[in-house]
Structure formats: C-alpha cells, structure tokens
Amino acid sequence: MHRNPTRPGACDGSHRREWLRWGAIAGGVCASSTLATSVRAAGAETHGPKFGRAKAVIVICLLGGPGQHETWDPKPQAPVEVRGPLGTISTAVPGITVSELMPQAARHTDRLAVLRAVVTGDNAHSSSGYQMLTGVPHIPMNMENATPKFPNRHPSFASIVRHHQPIVNGLPSAIQLPQHIANDGDIHWPGQDAGWLGRAADPWLIHCDPSAADFRISDLQVPAEVGQDRLSRRQLLREQMDGQLAAVQGERLNGYSQQFETAYGMLASPQARTAFDLTTEKPELRDRYGRTKFGQSMLLARRLVEAGAKLVQVNWSRQEGNPLNGGSWDTHAQHTEAMKKYLMPESDRAFSSLMDDLRERGLLDDTLVVWMGEFGRTPRFNGNGGRDHWGRCFSIAMAGGGIVGGQVYGQSDGDAAYPMSEIVRPDDLTATIFHLLGIPPETELRDPLNRPLPVSRGRVIDQIL
C-alpha cells in the first residue's frame, strides 16, 4: 500500500529544501507555479452552530482501509462469516459498543461522535483516498494507482487551510507527517497537495521517524557557516531584491517569496524549533503514546497544534515488525490476526493517548480530532481470511473542537454493508472541518479557468455539533 522513506533520523520537509540552499538567493529568482486566486467568504453573517469553534484539527489517516466491523461498527448479531470471531465491548456511553480491539478508545466515547454511514462509493485506494482528502470524487472512480494529474487536481482540505492562513508562529499552518501516501511502487495518491491552487498552498510534508533516537528536522537547522546573524542579513537582502523585481516578475516572484518566507519563518521561530524537540517530553508520556513511528507522530501532532499549527495530518505508515499485508490496513489476508496482533494495539494506544493528552492540557475543546481511512472492508471474509475494499459504507470518528460526544450518527445495515440512515459523504466531512475552523464552506476559490468554486459543496453535519 504505502511505503516508508529510508531516512530514519534526520527528517526533511520535501517542498522546502530548495529554498534553504542559500546560494539560490543571489543566484536568481525562480519561477513559481502559484496561481492567482480570488477568495471571498460568501454570504451570511450567521454560519450556524459552533462556527469557528476549533483552533486546530488533527486528522488521523489510517490508510489502507480499516475494517468497520473490528473498530466502530461491530455486528455481534450477524452470521460469523460477517461478524468474524471477535466480540464487542461496552464503552463510556451506555448503548454504544465497539470492537473488543478498542479497549482504550472505548473510554472516550463520551467525547466522540461515531459516524457509521460514511460513503465514497469507490473501492480503489487511490481514487477513494482522493475523495476523502479533497471532498471531490475522482474521475473516473474505482481507479487504482491514480496519480496527481488533470482533471484530478482539486486542492486537499489541508492545502485550503494553508491557503487561508499560510503561516502561524513561524510554522506552516498545515503539516503532513511522517510521510506521503503512496501505493506499492511509490505511486503517490492524488489529493495530497494544493493541486491547481499552487505550490505555495501545499501542506508542509515532513518525511521523518519521530521515534528515532537522532530525530531532528533538517529544515530547522541553520547551517553553521551561515549563523543567525547572516541569516537575518540575507532575509533583508531578499526583501530588497523583491521590491526591485516585483514590477517585472509579478506572480512568479510572489510564489518564490512565499516559499522563502516559509523557510525563513521556521528558521527564525523559537516556537517552530521547540515544537519538534520531543526530548522535552516526559519519558512516561512518550511511552504512553508508544515508541513507534505512528505513536510519536501522534505526540508530535499535539505539540504542533500547541505551537500554533491549524491542521496536522498523521498518515499511517507501514508497521515495522508486522509481516501481514505489508504492515498496512489493507488486510486482504489474515485480517483478524493482523487487526488483533498488530494494527489495533498500536493505533488504539496512540489514539487514546492523544485524547487523554489533549484533555489533560485543556486543548480538546479547541482541537478537532478526525479518525478515518479511505474506505472500509467488505462485510464478508474472502477465501484468504481477509476482507477486501469497501467504499459503500464505513465508519469514522470525530471529537473535540465543537463536536458533541457520546453519540452515534448514521446507521448501517445488519452486515455493516450499506447505509440505512444519515449518510455522510466526503464533502460533508470537509464542509464540517472548514466550518469548525471558521472557514465558511461557501468560500470561493478561482480555478485555472477562473471559475468560482466553493471550498466544499457538502453540508455541515449540524447534528453532531
């Protein structure tokens, strides 16, 4: 499904490195693919309940497709070939049950809204993932190994957040870690970047392993031969150059300037540098999250929103030590063993620790948390003891940042195969995320043909707010 980078310790933000090569400042001005956009907040002064309630959002992407039966929507009354061998457990909310594999998450259902009727209608990782990350269906649907190209270049919800507010406390407002999402062969999914909105709005993608002993972000290291004083002088020189060249370079210079401003802001910001220093956390807390790439990425996500980031997206990577299905959630074989022995213990631990940590620090009320995959798994097992792709009905969970906990929204049928009520589509999810962050879903962007397009055509899910 998706591959690990090969560099475990020193980490890089892949879209920033060219702007940190200091000779480029004097070597000329580079062209930027940033497009001019027209953004306006449409309409009404009243936007509905909880508008702007969230200061930040953490999106947990369990890519590969976690099964709804073994997570949020168990079916104990279904035949064994549907329900599987696992049982259910009670939770903090009477009447709400989850899989026995979620003992830690079960403690938090009083703060969670579980959405059990999410639908993409798409059974391919790449194209269904594109729809979940952008709110727009891929053309065509059910296309595996799709790549970012026309007409599937709609901006991700993360990039729209970045476009709306590029920098906060020296940090890019939208950050993805610990790696990009890709199918086998490192075929990158579409929908992870700014697309036609332009590279200046790309989320900051960090390839890293925060669990590594030598973890650091190379983009935040000022080269020894430069130093902080020379860095400040070069920033002043750049500003002078921009003023002289602006008249002749126009948008090309603007794109370059935005990229450099991001790099300089991170280097000059104590908050940015401190956010990535996990050694300041108590060892006991790091242990609670789990000393794994995913666990420490979740801890890092909390630190980044605490430092001012508006959106942090944590992508599940291939699980080290898991020999089944390449360490991903794409459990076409030995599904129950993979979920019980490998996938759920690590994810349940890290998710629950994040919820506890946010609550203990007083951040949960202001931080939206979204737990999701690109689709679910088939209601029946295949001949290899696995479950296959299923975009017709699956579950996600949301908490904090304006979400009313202790509820289930939407109902699936007796096999968790098809929705029975309160269907949620990806554009409804993006509309709700934008709404809670204070971005009206009707806000318009101009595409390359100068057509006004809303950031989301979905409906805000008022029932869970």
If you had to describe this structure to a student in words, what would you say it looks like?
A hairpin with a 6-residue loop joins strand 19 (411-412) and strand 20. It is built from eleven helices and 22 strands. The protein has one domain (10-464): Alkaline Phosphatase, subunit A, CATH 3.40.720. By secondary structure, it is of the alpha/beta class. A ten-stranded mixed beta sheet has the order 12-1-11-8-13-2-14-17-5-18, sandwiched between helices. Strands 3-4 form a two-stranded antiparallel ribbon. The protein has a two-stranded antiparallel ribbon with strand order 6-7. The model is unreliable at 2-8 and 14-45 (pLDDT under 50).
Write the layout of secondary structure elements.
Blueprint: E1 10-13, H1 23-27, E2 56-61, H2 80-83, E3 88-90, E4 97-99, E5 112-118, H3 125-134, H4 157-164, E6 167-168, E7 171-172, E8 174-177, E9 182-183, E10 187-188, E11 204-207, E12 216-217, H5 227-249, H6 251-268, H7 270-275, H8 283-289, H9 293-306, E13 311-315, H10 335-360, E14 367-372, E15 376-377, E16 389-390, E17 394-399, E18 407-409, E19 411-412, E20 419-421, H11 426-436, E21 444-446, E22 452-454
Parallel strand pairs: 1-12, 2-13, 2-14, 5-18, 8-11, 8-13
Antiparallel strand pairs: 1-11, 3-4, 5-17, 6-7, 9-10, 14-17, 15-16, 19-20, 21-22
Helix pairs in contact: 3-11, 5-6, 9-10
